[in-house]
Write a structure and sequence with these properties.
InterPro entries: AceGlu_kinase-like_sf, Asp/Glu/Uridylate_kinase, Uridylate_kinase, Uridylate_kinase_bac. It catalyses: UMP + ATP = UDP + ADP. Homohexamer. By secondary structure, the protein is α/β, with parallel strands linked by helices. It has a single domain, classed as Carbamate kinase, CATH 3.40.1160.10. 35% of the residues lie in helices and 18% in strands. The protein has 7 helices and 9 strands. It has a 9-stranded mixed sheet, sandwiched between helices. α1 packs across α2 and α4 runs parallel beside α6. It is globular, with a radius of gyration of 17 Å. The protein starts with 6 loop residues before the first strand and ends with a strand. The relative contact order is 0.17. The protein binds uridine-5'-diphosphate. The site of uridine-5'-diphosphate has 24 residues, from α2 and α4. Uridine-5'-diphosphate (UDP) binds next to α2 and α4.
Length: 237
């Protein structure tokens, strides 16, 4: 099969794991997501995942009000580690081999982030799950996705969301909202379109690393993206 990408960095938000629940990890939802990932891994695509933590804790959440921001952010990063372990376990159940690498040292739980090792795993066909974001407070897992994507020379950063791309307006509220097929980084930054946060966007722009936004809940959408078929919204220079 013809593939548009050999190596992708997939950004999964914590919210994606919640399904219809109010918080936490929904088992059926994570299994659905893993099935989509497994399908492209079986086609030979090298997949690295950056996992968010917003389903468990967010440094800027109401629960963090009054907390020291850096402390709250470290809690957020630890939340991403829980998600990474749940994702790894769901992959194990469908015989997709993965490794978790954490940006914070948690040696009993996960390997540390070592770029060379991550690259080797990818070449071996293993999925690498990057946990704990960048390892720094005041950043997000979107920025971690841009950073790790650049570090491992991914050809694209794919942001998995609940909506199948970027729209001119909220498609749930405005029936006339149209989906952008392509956008430039400048358009996304200037118009403050909710693709990724500004730090992530400028990093991708400067590294000429395209971003694809698509729905992980649309069956086969990830596969269509890696085949280069029209799907979602692409942000490029
Ligand atoms: N976080 C951080 N540094 C990072 C990545 C994440 O401090 O490099 C913290 C931050 O508090 C953030 C939380 O971890 O709110 C969860 O990450 P994020 O909000 O990006 O998760 P998502 O929205 O993708 O679920």
């Amino acid at each position: 099969m013809k593939l548009a990408y050999q190596r992708i960095l997939l950004k999964l938000s914590g919210e994606a794991l919640m399904g219809e629940d109010a918080y936490g990890i929904n088992r059926a939802t994570i299994d659905r997501i893993v099935a989509e990932i497994a399908a492209v891994v079986r086609q030979g695509v090298q997949v690295a995942v950056v996992i968010g933590g917003g389903n468990i804790f967010r440094g800027l959440a109401p629960g963090a009000i009054g907390m020291d921001r850096a402390t709250a952010d470290y809690m957020g990063m630890l939340a991403t580690v829980m998600n990474a372990l749940a994702l790894q376990d769901a992959m194990r159940r469908v015989e997709v081999v993965s490794r978790v690498q954490s940006a914070l040292n948690l040696e009993q739980v996960a390997e540390p982030y070592i770029r060379g090792k991550a690259l080797r795993y990818l070449e071996e066909g293993k999925v690498v799950i990057f946990a704990a974001g960048t390892g720094n407070p005041f950043f997000t897992t979107d920025t971690a996705a841009a950073l790790r994507g650049a570090e491992i020379s991914a050809e694209v950063v794919l942001k998995a969301t609940k909506v199948d791309g970027i729209y001119t307006d909220d498609p749930k509220k405005n029936p006339d909202a149209r989906r952008y097929l392509r956008l430039t980084f400048e358009e996304a930054i200037v118009n403050n379109l909710k693709v990724m946060d500004a730090t992530a966007l400028t990093l991708c722009r400067d590294q000429n690393l395209p971003i694809g936004v698509f729905s992980i809940f649309k069956p086969g959408a990830l596969m269509r993206v890696v085949r280069g078929e029209p799907e979602g919204t692409f942000v490029t220079n």
